[in-house]
Specification:
Layout (H helix, E strand, L loop, with lengths): L1 E2 L3 E2 L13 H18 L4 E7 L6 H12 L3 E7 L9 H11 L7 E4 L8 H15 L2
Parallel strand pairs: 3-4, 4-5
Antiparallel strand pairs: 1-2
């Protein structure tokens, strides 16, 4: 989606549970690669990680790949309402550890069902959109 004739907001297919053939997934990967590379230093990616499941080997691979391209990255831990409140901090620490996230990488816990974290996510999106159009 072209936003305000200044920047693109792109929703790429997921990679974890996609029911598609290898050729189609390869095509999706090329599409995503083109968008990130085409954005240059201004490329910024929101990487969704299932908060209940934790970071998977595919999440690790995606994060490392995006980082190798120099993209700005924000990690969003989704479905946090499915994680018991007493275990949420530990789940987030485990995602941070598994992905070897530095302090410079933003990790936002969210729940689309309860709305928790959505305000912070939208604020982060708006800040990055403003920065990318300067």
């Amino acid at each position: 989606f072209l936003v305000n004739d200044r920047c693109y907001f792109v929703d790429l297919p997921g990679y974890g549970y996609a029911k598609a053939g290898k050729d189609e997934r390869r095509e999706w990967a090329g599409l995503g690669d083109g968008y990130v590379r085409g954005g240059g230093e201004r490329a910024w990616v929101v990487l969704l990680v299932d908060g209940k499941v934790g970071a998977t080997p595919l999440d690790i691979e995606a994060f490392r790949y995006l980082a190798s391209l120099g993209a700005g990255i924000t990690i969003v831990a989704t479905k946090m309402d499915k994680v018991p409140s007493t275990k949420r901090a530990k789940a987030l620490l485990e995602i941070r550890r598994t992905l070897s996230l530095g302090e410079d990488i933003h990790l936002i816990p969210v729940s689309a069902d309860s709305g928790d974290g959505m305000k912070e996510l939208w604020s982060t999106i708006m800040l990055n959109l403003e920065a990318s159009t300067r």
